[in-house]
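## retry 2 of 3
previous attempt timed out at serialization; input unchanged, resubmitting
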Amino acid sequence: MIKYEFIHTDHEKEPENLHERIPAFPGDVTHSRHYLGNGSTERTYWCCREEDFYEYEEVLIAAGYEIWQENSIGPNRFATLVNGELDVHIEWYPYMSQVRVLVEPQSTLPVRETENVFTDRGFKPTVTQLRSEYCDVDCGMSYACQLCDGSFVVIDGGMSNHGEADQLYNHLVSRLPEGEKPVIAFWILTHHHPDHVNCFKDFADRYLDKVDVEAIVYNNPGYAKALRTGEYLIGEYTLIEEAVEKFPETTKLYMPHTGDVYHIRNAVFECLWCQDGLAGDSMSNTNNTSVVFRMTLGRRKVMWMGDASAKATRFMIPAYGFELAADTVQIAHHGYGDPDWAVYYYMRPKDALWPVPEYRTQTIEGLSAYLVGKLGVKNLYFAHTRDYTLDC
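## retry succeeded, writing output
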């Protein structure tokens, strides 16, 4: 497993400026430079055109880089190029006339579609929202998606106060023939808050000999930046790193970037936002570091929002517009007020997975009225009631 330096002992010291080791961006373009943590640095170039994106891609190819992946989301363009030592990720956002260039040491790269080999064993693809016990807290979320070969994608996992690791393991086993060892093909940790990742840490202590975990997906903010949030959860960084270290070397560790596409069996995950977008931001709200994925599984598109909050949603709305369309949405930040509700207008979902207790009426009344009354959402599934499984 490729390990990332989640913890930076010298909090304010940036690593080598990797941009000095790659070809210069063409033209005399105003830019800003940011350190993202995990060895990654980013430059944002202003007043750019789409042609600048493609011209720089050609410059990198001429310098010996290979295109690993290209993607478009509406008018936005993304590309990852590699040379065996460095990964260069390029993003073009027309609504801001911006090109972003992120450089990091060679990392684990998404499996390309042509390399995504699997056997369809006839399992019906499903999405399950696992019941949460909200007697201690009013937030937390855990989801498990089953793929056509019987393997699973897990999103977060929730707390660990009430046997959430046992609940998750028992759910995986219940979906398989008796005696079959569960395979978690993809475990996404949206961000480091305990109501999302404590189950992961508990699971690492108790169940690694009973399941095969093929990949972990996590993009945490740089430690120095996190210190400036004023949150009390800095210790969670250490605990997540310690949990990751317990997984075997065969478990891949992915650090996603906006625009990345992951082909996992018969599922496709497209990253629409991650903490890279906070470059240069004081990051007063760690929820904005939540990775946002749109999953296509069977006939269902599901938007996994984590705790994405105002900065994330206010980027996604102008960047993607109606490209955000999805059949199902996981309500961002448990329905609390900081995400921009307009993001759901552009999704127009039929179903909403809501990781919050239904009795939190002060949290849900306004948003549920908007979703059902204004947008025509047909089903609201609250996580404290029971497990809900949706066919895909």
